[in-house]
Each structure stands twice: as C-alpha cells, then as structure tokens.
Amino acid sequence: xxxxxxxxxxxxxxxxxxxxxxxxxxxxxxxxxxxxxxxxxxxxxxxxxxxxxxxxxxxxxxxxxxxxxxxxxxxxxxxxxxxxxxxxxxxxxxxxxxxxxxxxxxxxxxxxxxxxxxxxxxxxxxxxxxxxxxxxxxxxxxxxxxxxxxxxxxxxxxxxxxxxxxxxxxxxxxxxxxxxxxxxxxxxxxxxxxxxxxxxxxxxxxxxxxxxxxxxxxxxxxxxxxxxxxxxxxxxxxxxxxxxxxxxxxxxxxxxxxxxxxxxxxxxxxxxxxxxxxxxxxxxxxxxxxxxxxxxxxxxxxxxxxxxxxxxxxxxxxxxxxxxxxxxx
Length: 329
What we know:
Structural class: alpha/beta
CATH class of the largest domain: Alpha Beta
Largest sheet: 6 strands, parallel
Shape: elongated
Strand content: 15-25%
Mean pLDDT: 86
Low-confidence stretches: 112-116
CATH topology of the largest domain: Rossmann fold
CATH architecture of the largest domain: 3-Layer(aba) Sandwich
CATH superfamily of the largest domain: Response regulator
Helix content: 25-40%
Strand order of the largest sheet: 2-1-3-4-5-11
C-alpha cells in the first residue's frame, strides 16, 4: 500500500496540510477538537511520522523557561538570569531558540493561548511544576528538564549542595582548630536550604566537629539579619558562620562591621553560589561556585539532542561546585 502522507490526511478531512501538521505536533494553534479529529484519522488510515533529524540551520525552537515566583524581589539576586540564558543558548549551539520566560506561579496559559505558538521544550530553573503542568507537557511529548531541582527520574542538572558545604567547613576547620560553627538557612527557599543544612551537618559529623540541628537557624527574611541577631551569634560562642548563600553572607558581613566586629578576626564567614552580590562587600567572602551558566549549558545540550538529533539520552547530572577562596576565613 502507498504510504499515507499529511496531504492524504488533509484531503480526507478537508483541512489544510499546515493545520494537519500542527495538530500532529500538538501545536496550541490548533483546537482540541481538531487535534483529536486529525489523530483519529491518522490512526485509522495508518499514518506514520518520519523519524528524521530536524535541520539545525533552519530550526527555530520555542523554549519555555520557568523561574520561581517570589514575594521578595531580592530572592532573584540569588542567581544571574543573564548567565543562565547565555548557558542555555550555548547549549543549543547553532540552533536558534526563542526563549519565553515566565514565573512558575500557577498562572501559565501556554496551552490555553494561541499567541505564543508551539512550545518545543521547557526548563524549570530553581523551581518545579505541579502535577497538572507535568501531565500537560507529557501528553504533548514536550521534553522537560530541571535546573538545580532533582525530581525523581525526571531529567535534571544540579549542583551538589552537600559536597559544597563540606568543602567550606573543611576549609574553615583548617584555619580554626576547635571551630564552633553555625548555619544560617533561608525558609523561602527551603528546598536548597535543607540540602545545604543537611550537607553541613553531615560534614561536621565526618570531621568530628560538634554541631547539631540546634546550631542551624532558619530565617524568614534577610531583614532578620539585624545587629541584635549577629551579636547573639557571637555571644553564643560561634566563631564560624556558614550562610545559605552569598546574599545572606554579605548582609552578615555588613551588620558585623556596623556592630564593631571584624571578619575574620571575630568569626569566619562563608557564602555559597559565587553571586555578583559579593562585589558589594569590603572583603571577598569565601564561597562555592554555583556555575549557573554551566547548568544552563547542560540543559540546552540535552534539549538540543532530544529535539534536533532525536536522541533519548537520560540526564541526571550532579555538578561539584568549585571552592572560590576569599578573605573571610
């Protein structure tokens, strides 16, 4: 029998070939009833899609990038969006991409609106989708990848928070024998904060350093890092403060200076992420390189392989962030 083509389906249904093609691609430019009609006819007539690579030079892919919502604008200072986008684009190489950036706030209308066209792939950076949104992408065969979130067997690339915290505590312990450390976490970003707290407690156990959950403080906001709080840490005998991230470390540094403390004379201080905010501190704070651009690059490479080269390689990659020396140990 002759091979059934898109044009055969179009003649059978009285539709244009472009409409049939969009329906088979699960485009949002085609309504659900038309999509169901085309799929039913394709199954009935024995239509089979070709499994050929898409030409890189002629492809323009639409990638949806989801970022975490936040009531506090400073939360988005935890990472560099421009660096993330650059890494994502470099991962796609010569393939041109159109990146649609949105907040993962539950108000996504990608599947209800026809204005944005077809979404070819989705990236969830520092956030994760709800079950309904995952189901929508899966039903349409749209590949999804996570950055700095590990969601079961879903494709992901992340930084090893536990190893990073262990590296920092080891560096502190080398400079301060008999160190008494504390950890400052951040409740609004509980996923990463919990991982880093678990990492520092595990490292303390391995290194024989006395440290328990009572030495870990979860803060609701950066404003909680006032002078009274910094004085209380020193009064309790802590001589090393390991912060959830660099923004928190910079606030501790500035508050300590205002209170008359000197770092690292009075206590050691570390951050995490190697964020641009470190430039506003008078001394360079010891930290761990988060490598936002590298995370984006791995996500982009995987999506390019899946969409252009039709590869089915899995992606569950954990990167070891490098130690970036400073002047605060």
